[in-house]
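ok so i was messing around last nite and threw this chain in just to see what happens. nothing serious, just curious
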Amino acid sequence: MENKKNKNKPKSAASKKKSFSKDKSKSTFSKKPYVKKDFTKRPDRKSNLPKVDDGLTRLNKFLANAGICTRREADVLIKAGVVEVNGKVITEMGCKVSETDKVVYGGESLQNEHKVYVLMNKPKGFVASMNDPFNRRNVLELLGKLKQRVAPVDKMERDTTGVLLLTNDDNLARRLTHPKLHVKKIYQVSTSTNVSALHLKQLVTGFELESGFVKLDEATYVGKGEDKRTVGVEITSNKSGVVKKMFEHLGYEVSKLDRVYFAGFSKKKLERGQWRFLTESEVGILKMTQKETAE
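result:
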């Protein structure tokens, strides 16, 4: 009876799987041969391609190199249709120009000169001027074999040390030294004798010199004020050597004059005589700050 029941009982799915023949030759399923996959990294195709220099420069970079503005600002000028290339107004992005192309902005032809911006910690005994009749040691000697010809943004006395900017960007240099822009400078002044509190007030109030009326924006003792011979002063005047002249006018002998801040830059991480290039972001911030100050 048990055999009959089992004979009539429907076969389950599991039993059906077991019904396949174990003989591989008779099996309806054939196994594919195992092939080992190659997981080695595909070589970078771009790295094998040689870099081609077509001698062309993007128009926005051309305008930035010419000292007109930053690249982002150049994009705005191009879209506004105020830039011409070979007599044609350019408004589309991505336009490239060659050395022979004539680029005009504001009615003036522009030159594609690579702009260089140098921050230096000027040492004592070096003049910061392009023309020195006495042929004394010049800060340009400290730059070594720099390809671009740069010039100090402002004049610093031979015995004055500290922050000095040099560049071949004439437009920026003019803005930094323009009397209406009030570019901030901070000096640390060391004198041979104590500076009185009354004279500190006079320095801020101002007085007449041979060059005209002068005054400091701020004058305080350095630190806790224990050393009355060291004074920190802030000034926006562009008159050459005016800080030293003001102290001498009040009867003090200046033994050391160190500029610790100029136009947003300090001499941090720069030893005496050392220099470095400004980064692209630093140049952009400098240009933007001076533009906002002018407005």
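not much to say yet. Residues 46-53 have pLDDT under 50 and may be disordered.
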